[in-house]
Fold:
Amino acid sequence: MVLVAGVDSSTQSVKVVVRDAHTGELVRQGRSPHPDTTEVNPEIWVSALSAAMSGILDGVTAISIAGQQHGMVVLDEHDQVIRPALLWNDTRSAQDALDLVDEEGGPEFWANAVGSVPVASFTVSKIRWLARNEPHNAARVAKLMLPHDYLTWCLAGQPDEFYTDRGDASGTGYWSPALGSYQSELVQRALGHVPQLPKVLGPSVAAYETSNGVMLGAGTGDNMAAALGLNVQPGDVVVSLGTSGTAFAGSRIPSADPTGIVAGFADATGNFLPLVCTLNAARILDSTAAMLRVSLERLGELALSAKSGAEGLVLIPYFDGERTPNLPDSSGSLHGITRTNFVDANIARAAVEGMLLGMAEAVEALEQQGVVAQRILIIGGAAANRAVAQVAATIFAQPVFIPTPDEYVALGAAKQAAWCVSQEAAPPTWHTSGQTLAAPVSTQFNAALLDRYQNYRGALYDLSR
Structure:
């Protein structure tokens, strides 16, 4: 049996899976937590990865790491970390994103140059924040990495060269998926100079080989790995409900949305992955359950006991500000309250609907960029809640499927590792998980829900501009 390992280094934890390279069968797995924060010393990731890998890598021939996108890891000329890494969910760089867009020809320029319009999450915005707020640190930056680049580089023993892949590079705001190259002038504009950047490798190219002969794949971003793990096909739109919410679809052509809603990313196979990301997803349910003083399971039961539409309650779920639409300083709000509808069941229903309606807007935006959505696949921690599956069938116009719960990001990373070993023309398919229809046929799509949500959201957007 040839074994490979896949790593998911996410915001909240690191997960490692060891799988059979030929069948995808899960052999072993490990896990370790990350601190709940928006900036962190990257050495904490290294320690957590070491703990998660401890005792489970015997016989592994290749490893690939998928990591949270966009984070800024900066090293000096001695390869020392200069400051804590800024993560995707750190919104301090919101004004810097706006400044960059204004200075460099507007949204259309950025969409054409790099496939996406910068927001606070993007690495290019964060290096501008660094230059503006910590110029002494900005001047010291000799190497600029993403989280997964840094972890792969550390596993390799911190050599002079370091690498990334098309997928994660496409989320920086200074690498073009359409052209397949860095736009170095944008780094210069944001940081003040151009440090050493990772070389961008093809999806099945090994970045390194360790001293004991283990291949290290180029790795990728977490959303790209999830798409690879799910075997995403044309017509599939994946809605991932983790700390953030994402909706993405596979594409053979690059996208460029000047509105900034759809990010024109690359995927982990050599194609493209148009994607919409929100800051708020599963934590909406966590916060609502905590407020109601119930478990997540009970929150789901309450939500299902209420009618579709929560008797007029509408939750705008911008608890941590928002990235899409670009409202980093906004907050959540509950609308349509009356004396009769303001009860636990409707509040629970409004929380589930609010989270999903934000993602329905994301799917709508993908369709406006030419994506043909034939079915919705819902994954992520919140997908395990029975109410999410049932309510989703009333929110999305397409059939909703729930894949068998799995660590899809780590699974996709393991597929990439197996691809490095096999050097086949395409990655393994690994039919490891089934899919079930989310809700019974009697569950009816309610088109009015999105209209009402968009009316309240639109008013909030107008007030925030």
Remarks:
- The two ends are 58 Å apart (CA to CA).
- Residues 3-222 form a domain with the Nucleotidyltransferase; domain 5 fold (CATH 3.30.420.40).
- DSSP finds 15 helices and 24 strands in the chain.
- The mean pLDDT is 94.
